[in-house]
Amino acid sequence: xxxxxxxxxxxxxxxxxxxxxxxxxxxxxxxxxxxxxxxxxxxxxxxxxxxxxxxxxxxxxxxxxxxxxxxxxxxxxxxxxxxxxxxxxxxxxxxxxxxxxxxxxxxxxxxxxxxxxxxxxxxxxxxxxxxxxxxxxxxxxxxxxxxxxxxxxxxxxxxxxxxxxxxxxxxxxxxxxxxxxxxxxxxxxxxxxxxxxxxxxxxxxxxxxxxxxxxxxxxxxxxxxxxxxxxxxxxxxxxxxxxxxxxxxxxxxxxxxxxxxxxxxxxxxxxxxxxxxxxxxxxxxxxxxxxxxxxxxxxxxxxxxxxxxxxxxxxxxxxxxxxxxxxxxxxxxxxxxxxxxxxxxxxxxxxxxxxxxxxxxxxxxxxxxxxxxxxxxxxxxxxxxxxxxxxxxxxxxxxxxxxxxxxxxxxxxxxxxxxxxxxxxxxxxxxxxxxxxxxxxxxxxxxxxxxxxxxxxxxxxxxxxxxxxxxxxxxxxxxxxxxxxxxxxxxxxxxxxxxxxxxxxxxxxxxxxxxxxxxxxxxxxxxxxxxxxxxxxxxxxxxxxxxxxxxxxxxxxxxxxxxxxxxxxxxxxxxxxxxxxxxxxxxxxxxxxxxxxxxxxxxxxxxxxxxxxxxxxxxxxxxxxxxxxxxxxxxxxxxxxxxxxxxxx
Length: 649
Description:
The protein is α/β, with parallel strands linked by helices and 649 residues long. It is 34% helix and 13% strand. The radius of gyration is 27 Å and the shape is globular.
């Protein structure tokens, strides 16, 4: 159990733990919005272990109280090098609020799932406090919140454009993306005596310099964005900026970006080249306990940890480039895959955990079946500017051979202490159908059968997201006809092996470009496929996505075409209700809406109710639908021409 290990196996989170190590002061202090879980899936632990591996003394202050006398921020005193600040594994506003801007009642990254242990805009709040307490100590911000807010961005929760988080936080340096590579360079340069204010040429970092100062001299070419102030005046300028931001974030040989805001220029240096197998192994092989800090034992389990504690993350990055997703903006589109040796070493560690029952909950990554996939000719990838490798078609240079994944699954399966290893993180189904993946070989069928027979935990998650081609193009997702093909293939392998494992498709309502008729079609198509959708997602505009840019500006950043966006609560509710066609309380409203739009065909497909055209022509709809019954118990047409439904089905 946790208490059987010495406390020094964890990084220190109290002054007493620092003293017990014989330390008088720390080199780096990390402030995190999450509870401290010493596991490679938690960014605070990864950063702390890297600092430790470079020979420096590091402590973590998890979820400090920002409302009292700020004693949590003071307990370690001044670090010798810098404070590292992160909101945690999520943007604090996504963590706190639903798509309807309702406050969430729980927090998966807090013991007991309790809410209220981190502030809104946590990175800004923590940094401002530190600047007040220790004005002469540099602050490095990182993690998802800092990464996705590194340029002018739309903040859905305040409904306004905000400048780079560097401006509001007053931090000295921002690390974006997965932070191992820039962090090691920061530590090594500081270790050589380089002054902190000269750390302005490190890849994958961002700094502020005075607007009238000369830009640091480098060999990088510079792209100048429209200023924050111009974006505030002109939504088109804001939209046009994003094309450059997205492309430079996903290029292997990118340019430097500069944007003016207030009295500063924000410099965003290009990202590092994709991590090599050796580099990513080095990060995952650090001496994590894989456990929450013992101090949380009496406060209850940490839900996010419970969900992943028996899982294995095999790779990073996603080349899907979906318009609503932030994965590539943070992790990049090129896949960084761990070695099989590193993965199997972690499997060994998981199987030795005291409460392990033989079941690995997930062998995956952002998209489970992207492990090991990369370009056939690296020089072509080096020149690529596309944000997606699989939309609008699968790149002819992408090697989609799934053999390596199948081999690894079988290797994990053969482990004597593993009863089952599931794939719980979802797959890209479009890579597994020949109609879309025209360069596929037989490996996709072998992978599919291995997946279906050995790695599905009762049901398989996939994300077609929509059925309307126009909306899917905006989403950068394939036509829904390919999902039909995938379902046939999935059903075939289930039947062949005597299995009955349902597919769980994920869909989004109220996405930019999506109209009410599109949602009705979605509901009808999924009904005809045998799905009754209970868990659905309303589009949430998060910083650093194409869809969010469209949501705020009304323009597509690549074409500058004006687009329809469902924004009001009424519009969102109208789209969302089509998911629930099977619930009686929604059926009358759905019928009203479809007849108003002259879509009688969808009434019949969705509700199984045939609307007789000649009756409707004689009795035109002129008002709201009544739900009153006549003396016989049947619903009837009113004399005023208001449709009351006379017992017709």
